[in-house]
Design goal:
It is a single chain. The two termini are 20 Å apart. It contains 13 helices and eleven strands. Strands 1-9-8-5-4-2-3 form a seven-stranded mixed β-sheet, with helices on both faces. It has two domains: 236 residues, Aspartate Aminotransferase, domain 2; 119 residues, Aspartate Aminotransferase, domain 1. It is globular. By secondary structure, it is α/β, with parallel strands linked by helices.
């Protein structure tokens, strides 16, 4: 049986040639493609500002710092997310407070979010799980009323919209991932978008040691000052070059993802034991998720049949040893995050995936359930 991979990066020969050109030039950082890449991100998301970073985690970290989160503060995050979301909060000295999620979307539960707010609550990080957008109208209305700063973890959300507005434009910032399995890849890497000039200035300095002047802005070599503590969270120019054309061509990539999603939905629509989110024109379809009660058995069989799948995510963060011990957490308080973790399967979703391969994946799973 021919192997169907879980993910294949959408990298063209043109992308590879451009990366080679940058490497051969010897100008590997602070080059023009970093700016060009950021500009393409701004065009696609319609954000005023974009700052490339070394990873989405780095973007979340400096966003939390720029938001002013510190020791004594509480920041609410969904219990179902990658550990990077919680770590970014913890790096600042603030405390990550976990909220249950809605099922089967995996997005933060507004009902439980409201229960978790205290006098110490300073922030909220929403996660657009699997590219399916959160209800940002209800979330922003509540948070503005309660003076809670909102950050968006958009690791899955390149191409996700809510009421015509791209994800990442609702909160003070949105942090995106360009990890190899994502819709666009730069190997490792990420970007932060914002519409706040002061916030932009803060994260731009934080990602580069706290240095107050970019190389292009220095009147003479070495003429800069460091006025605050910063980090080395920069993206290389050849990474930016790898992502540049992928962003320019992303509308086509996104259209293909929607075509594949519709095929999954058509194939699974009459199967009672498989649950999934309804089709959404606003989802980026980072992956297509289904939910099955006998999930682990299905995973084993799919692996045996050489069909690549993944899980996003199996263990809610309150189950992770670090957070469970630090905050004495119990999974009893995260009912739907636990159900989500036990049942979700992420199916392949990429432009090079053929429709007959989608059908094969679906037929195999339908027989297994």
């Amino acid at each position: 049986m021919k192997e169907i991979k879980f993910s294949i990066p959408n990298i063209s020969k043109q992308d590879i040639n451009l990366v080679g050109k940058i490497i051969r030039s010897g100008w590997l950082t602070h080059g023009k493609y970093t700016s060009l890449f950021e500009n393409e991100i701004k065009k696609f998301t319609k954000a005023k500002y974009a700052v490339s970073v070394s990873s989405c985690t780095a973007g979340l970290h400096i966003s939390c710092l720029a938001a002013g989160f510190k020791k004594g503060d509480e920041v609410i995050i969904p219990a179902q997310t990658h550990t990077a979301t919680a770590h970014a909060v913890e790096y600042t000295g603030a405390k990550a407070i976990f909220s249950d999620v809605d099922y089967p979307s995996g997005n933060i539960s507004l009902i439980d979010l409201k229960r978790k707010v205290t006098k110490k609550t300073k922030g909220l990080i929403v996660v657009h799980m699997a590219g399916y957008p959160c209800d940002m109208k209800k979330i922003m209305t509540f948070c503005k009323k309660n003076k809670i700063q909102v950050l968006e973890d958009c690791a899955h959300a390149m191409g996700s919209f809510f009421k015509g507005v791209h994800a990442g434009n609702f909160g003070v910032s949105g942090s995106f991932s360009f990890y190899p399995t994502k819709q666009i890849t730069t190997g490792e890497g990420g970007v932060v978008i914002t519409n706040d000039k002061n916030f932009y200035d803060k994260i731009r300095k934080l990602k580069a040691f706290g240095i107050d002047k970019d190389i292009k802005d220095r009147k003479k070599q070495g003429d800069y000052d460091v006025k605050s503590l910063g980090f080395n969270y920069r993206m290389t120019d050849f990474q930016a070059a790898l992502g540049y054309n992928q962003v320019k061509k992303y509308k086509k990539n996104l259209a293909t993802r929607h075509k594949i999603a519709k095929r999954y939905i058509k194939n699974f629509s009459k199967v009672k034991n498989i649950r999934f989110m309804p089709y959404s024109k606003d989802s980026s379809y980072f992956v297509f998720q289904i939910f099955c009660k006998n999930r682990d058995n299905i995973l084993r069989e799919l692996k045996r049949k050489k069909i690549g799948v993944s899980v996003h995510y199996s263990n809610p963060l309150p189950k992770m040893t670090f957070y469970k011990k630090k905050y004495n957490l119990s999974l009893k308080n995260f009912k739907f995050a636990s159900i989500y973790g036990k049942r979700n399967i992420s199916l392949p979703m990429y432009p090079k995936l053929k429709i007959n391969e989608v059908d094969k994946i679906c037929d195999t799973i339908i027989k297994l359930v």
